[in-house]
Design goal:
Layout lengths: L4 E10 L2 E2 L1 H10 L4 E3 L1 H5 L6 E3 L4 H4 L6 H4 L4 H16 L15 E7 L4 H13 L10 H5 L3 H10 L5 E2 L7 H14 L5 E8 L3 H10 L29 E9 H6 L6 E10 L13 H15 L8 E3 L8 H12 L8 E3 L2 H4 L6 H15 L1 E2 L24 E2 L4 E8 L3 E9 L4
Parallel strand pairs: 5-6, 5-7, 10-11, 10-14
Antiparallel strand pairs: 1-2, 1-8, 1-9, 3-4, 7-8, 9-15, 12-13, 14-15
Helix pairs in contact: 5-8, 9-15, 12-13
Length: 424
Amino acid sequence: MSSRVVITGLGVVAPNGHGIAEFEQALRTGKSGIEFQEKMKELNFACHVGGIPKGIREIAPQYFSDESLLAMNETQIYSGIAAIDAWKDAGLSVPHDKSEVNWDAGCVVGLGISGMDVISEKVIPMVNAGKTKRMGSTIVEQVMASGVSAKLSGILALGNQVTSNSSACNTGTEAIVMAFDRIRAGLADKMVAGGVEGSSPHVWAGFDAMKVINSRSNNDPHKASRPMSASAAGFVPGSGAGILILESLESAVKRNARIYAEILGANVNCGGHRMGGSMTAPNPISVRRCIQQALAMSGIEADQIDGINGHLTATFADPYEVENWSIALNLAPNQLPKIQSTKSMIGHCLGAAGAIESVATIIQINKGFLHKSINCEDLHEKILPYKESILHQTENSPVNIMAKASFGFGDVNGCLIFKKWETK
């Protein structure tokens, strides 16, 4: 018999807020975390705006020793802070160096591109200058793809599966699905799950070259991320980390943990680069199948969904995504649940996006509100039939079930169905 999986802890480092309370307030008020980035202008990017968490370097010494920080890159710091916050939020104690290994707790925390800040600022310049011997002994652990999850295993003494997945913009959502599957199969009691992405311009440069990020709002950063709007001109790059503590219901009840929500359904798939799908575009059939299979696992009907936290990036794909939700759920445009884009406030945090947006989704379920999407006053004409479902204002009302999906380069998809936990 499969184990039921619940969420007992949350941690977030986002462009518009660090920590659950600050992030919740930002979501409620529609606070944008998008700012002008001088470095992007200096490097002759077309886009000069991005989302970078603020004040993280200053608070990092509260979490890590000076010696540890010398061997940590930006993604390890973001994910480390969010994971420690989430672990404590779950009512768990951060172990000390002599603590026993927790063999029943593991970690799936992924990212899109690993250690680019270290690669661009240290590895390439020093190797090209013939100074390899002066790079130090911690370079490999900072650039290896599994560096973030490996670092978390040491911080939290995790002895179950510890790995970093990568599936482009679906990474964060996929990590939660993978952790869900492991607990559901009875192979772990607790899993640290989520995603992280750094803010190096070397991560964002490829998207600027593709002309898929917005270069029309350099003088008005807070207006730059415009999902679902007629004036959308590409996504805005973002960075940060989102972490969830997933736990078997049995484990959570046994230790009398506070439970935010239950994961009712979860699914990932790929469109195989067929039927319109490609490295950069989703196969619409696979998108719909992914949503439908997550819904089927959940055992609920589509009309029981109170809200959808979409992928919705402010590209040409937004109208297709909204249409795919309607078709997948077999609901007419005027029946579609309320749908929102957290990216309108934080930009597209790439490998961290699905995880940060899942944290946003759980906060809304737990606190009873649906946040607005900013900068979509001028809805795209193909989204107008769904206008009653677009949240232009934050709504305070009970939220029982929400769906969260991500769609990534490589034609990969992920979908989660969350249900509020009601204490009996």
